Amino acid sequence: MERFPIPAIDWTVENQDFIRFSQEYSRILRERIPTAAAVAFYAELKVLETVLPEEVRAMAADLFDPGVADHETVIFAPDGLLLPFVTGRRQVVVARLSGLDPLVVDRMAKDWLAEVQAAAFRDFLAVKRTRIEAVSGLCNITHLYALLETPPETGPFHLVLIELPPRTRSSRDAFQNARRAAFALQACVGDSGIVHHLGQCVFAIFLRDMQDEDFSERYGSKLVALLKRDGFYRVHVGSSSRMGESLPKAAIEEERDRLLSEAWAALQTAERRGPFTFCDYRVLAHPERHPLFPPSEGLICKVRRKYSRSKQFCLVELAKEGWAGDRLANLVGRHLAPGLCFADAASVILFLEGVTGREAHQQVVELLRTLDRETGADLQVSAGIGAYPFADFHKGEIPANCRKALLHGAFFGPGAVVEFDAVSLNISGDIYYGDGDLSKAMAEYRRGLVCDPDNVNLLNSLGVTYAMLDRHSVARESFRKALAIEPDNFMALYNLGLGEVRRGELHGSLKYFERALEVYCEDDGLEIRKDLQLQLAKLYCHLGLFDRAYPLLMEWHDAATGGQQSGPALRYLGETCYGLGRKEEAKIWLQKALRFNELDPEALSLLGLVYMEEGEGHQIALALCDKGVELNPDNAASRLRLAKVQIACDMLAEARQNLMKCRGDKRILPEIQVCLGQLWLKLGRKRQADRWFAKVLQSHDLSPELAGTARGFMRN
């Protein structure tokens, strides 16, 4: 019988709770300890020491010993108190209270502080019980409302809504999807934000003090791509942002509702855009601020009347940072014939009759030099030139081409003069892609390929966009075209490798990933190299090439900063060490993996198998493997490990059931057959056992270790 899919929660206070519920826990301590002005929590001694007087540091160090923390506090003059709390894993978090009235500090008794400590801990647990959603183990919507009702008074804060629907409508899949999403989102967010499950398949991330540049980079296309790679069926992300400020209570509630509504509107827009998309409400709310927002209709009409009868012309858009269009037009117009310079409050467009793009470029450069000489300054006026005729563009598109060329010129700095070309379309496509508008991005990339069919960057960009729109066959074709033009193109190799992983063609992806690592250069970017290393190491693990996986994983782990960043590699390091026969080391890595994510089914089941093989207790091994299968019943590798432990525990009927359920996974079929042979041996049926061992020896790509095991059982 399959178990109920929502396990009971072991209600204990953990280290991360002091981050998630820091506001509530601080309030509890301020209420219980009179006059405390500020409360901060520290899980590491080295961080706490930076804010303590020299004479207190030695005493503070003792507090991080769980045996001492249960009954000890540190009072330091004139207004400070350190109060330790032992969490569920026998780790310690120390609360530092400051700003206390010296008279109160002087009269504090240790017995009273011990009572406060115990009562506060009970209050902490009560808060957690009301703020955690049982299915995912994440914070619930009540906690999100509490955070939004106490926004920071300074610095930006952001709300991100994520929709991750399950592939089917079954309740079983919905529960599994929620737990898997919780793990994936926490791995993506780390300590930078707080993840919530709002119900159904909608999640929320609350982020404080993250600058707009970092936010746009991490919580736009990158977040969608990471979740897509994790195998989620659909990914939609909507976000809204605010600057922190002090507001009256009524205004705070209004601002809370507005922030939620904006993020929700952005999420609905993302849903309409495609299967893997995102949207920032600021782009929806202020289209006039978009870099590709067109000039005013009045200005376009004036320019259109000028070029409507012309068979060859160029338009030039000029811009200078901090200058209005009228001011720049007054300066430029003195050097042109009447009726060739048009302007509105934001834009200046020049009309040049009967010239090519190159000729227009020369004229504009000379014009800008003249302006510099006239004013006696380096004005650094930028210019974007759009020529007609050009490729298959009609006249009405030339003003937009000028703007795209102007944005292209921004890469060269102020004062650049750039002609519109295929690269300009790559840049405008990237802008739309960065907004989450994949349809417009795809259109820009395709127009760019009309201008330059062999542009490898455009082919790669178009392929990535196709993949995000779930059009994987045409994406693969785009990457292959790029590779045919440039056989050592890193991005094409990397993207083809990802595509082969998605198709289950592991050997094909191995070829692409290994070649990509060979041709990598610094210009390709450090972040993408790190991701390639991790993807390749995972692939080596899946293929049993553990000697190749280990150095890659160790390099990746050592380069990561902090537990959250190194977390994704921990389970694979455990799996690799186990595959190399280094079981003691595997145990350490798997224990670390479970500290990173206590509900990782693969880490749980593999750690259980290690405990069994190392003789550390069949019952704990059975409990861990059972938990791994309970969390992910469809994972064949976890079922196989449970069956191995059940065979060791003489639970042969249960083991046979689990082995039958995981026979569909061809990658582990020889191991399953070995286990079935062992099972029949235990039942005293050697002939049937030998038939299973013979099937093992007929397998292709059989590892020497497994072949030796099968032959050994047959001989005995």
From TrEMBL:
UniProt KW Kinase keyword: no
Spans of repeat TPR: 422-455, 456-489
Keywords linked to the UniProt accession: TPR repeat
Coiled coil (residue ranges): none
PROSITE patterns recorded: TPR
InterPro entries: TPR-like_helical_dom_sf, TPR_rpt
Protein name, entry field: Tetratricopeptide (TPR) repeat protein
Species annotation: Desulfoprunum benzoelyticum
Species classification: Bacteria, Pseudomonadati, Thermodesulfobacteriota, Desulfobulbia, Desulfobulbales
